[in-house]
Amino acid sequence: MHCMMKSLQLSFGTLLTILFLYHCGSPADQSSSLSDESAIDAISSLSSNSSSAICDTTQGHRRYCNQIFAESDISVQTLVYSTALNEKTGQPENLLLDLYMPKDDAVTDRPIMFFGHGGGGKRGDGLGWCDHILGVTGYVCADIDYRGGGSVNGADGWEEKLGLTDFQAAVRWARANAKKYGIDPNKVFAMGESLGAIAAVQATITANNLDDSYFNDTYVNKSNKKQPSWTCGAVTISGAVTNQVMPMLDKYDSNAFMFHGEKDHTVDIRQATLTYNNMIRLDIPSTLTLFDIGHKLSENFTPEIAADVIPQLYNQFMNVGCPLAYTGIQKIQ
Question: Is 3.60.21.70 the CATH number for 6-320?
């Protein structure tokens, strides 16, 4: 295998996983980050305590662990999930998603994963996660459009706010349409790469901080705002929490399932380790898997790596579920 992986997994009782993707930009405050050497050393010292999650197929847990559908059995439909103001024109625009799910599936309470493409990309650049990887194991998966672009290190963080509010709107759309599309509203996850990773993970960690005043902002996505915005976790590919949003991280957040290149200086490895270390400090169960490459991590997600990731997702999300009591949120019936 071209890449080198170091997998870190810490369990603090209840396992959640925040699915992180990666955004485009370098950390604004290097003084708060670790040095390259100390960051890698800190991670390496923990990796010896990690344990690989394995789906127990002998107990009938094959769905969400292994491929049970042919790729030809996965349907896709393009839907409008929200209408929001275009950040350049100020005019309303429809935001679309491509919804992937198995055809003629008897299961009607399936988890859904939202995927956000990288900066400069477009809907459909999902690296095969929705159809080739997640869909064939039984997930519903949505590859979404979202607003935003440019540097995520803007002075006011305006660009990144657009993406995270659109991710939250997509989550609310899923809950509003759960019965129609056979979705379990209590098993909603976010995933992305590059700028999409930033949107996904930051949508996850800010969802507990929303109140009525949040929706007063002109450009905040207000679609289905009566539905909850929280997710059960996030997966990131080459991404991290930005310095603007880091202060919102707290012990009640879902955890992260992070993948990052050790030589990444676009989304600096130090920002990823800072994110990971802050989560562990707050007892948020998270993992960080490192590859001996730079920013183009998505090119190294081989079928073999994906086959290893899927069982870990199962054990950290599906098998344990989404413990909602940690925020006092009532389970959606």
Answer: no
Distance of CA 245 to CAs 168, 204, 250, 259, Å?
15, 11, 11, 19
The tokens describing 237, both together, are 């590919």
Which pLDDT belongs to residue 169? 95
Cβ-proximal residues to 324 (8 Å cutoff; 6+ apart), any chain: 186, 330, 331
Helix (H, G, I), strand (E, B) or coil at 17: coil
pLDDT at 107 over 90: yes
| Most confidently predicted of 86-100, 150-164, 298-312 | 86-100
Region of 224 (left: φ > 0; alpha: ψ -120 to 50; beta: rest) is left
**Least confident window among 79-83, 132-136, 249-253, 329-333:** 329-333
Contact by Cβ (8 Å): 170, 82 = yes
Say if residues 46 and 262 touch (Cβ distance below 8 Å): no
Residue listed under structure tokens 């939250």: 168
- Of residues 151 and 307, more confidently modeled: 307
**Tokens 């997600």 sit on residue:** 301
309: its two tokens: 């990731």
Tokens 């950290």 sit on residue: 316
Tokens read off for 113: 């994963």
Contact between 279 and 256 (Cβ < 8 Å):
yes
Chain centroid, CA 194 distance in Å: 11
Is the confidence at residue 34, as pLDDT, over 80? Answer: no
Phi and psi (nearest 5°) for 261? Answer: -85, 135
Which of 134, 130, 322 lies closest to 228 in space, CA to CA? 322
Name the residue with tokens 């394995």: 54
What is the DSSP code (8-state) at residue 316? Answer: I
| Rounded distance between C-alpha atoms, residue 81 and residue 101, angstroms | 16
CA distance 209 to 249: 10
Rounded CA-CA distance 115/132 in Å is: 13
More confident position, 301 or 163:
163
Neighbours of 307 (CB within 10 A): 12
> What is the overall mean pLDDT for the chain?
74
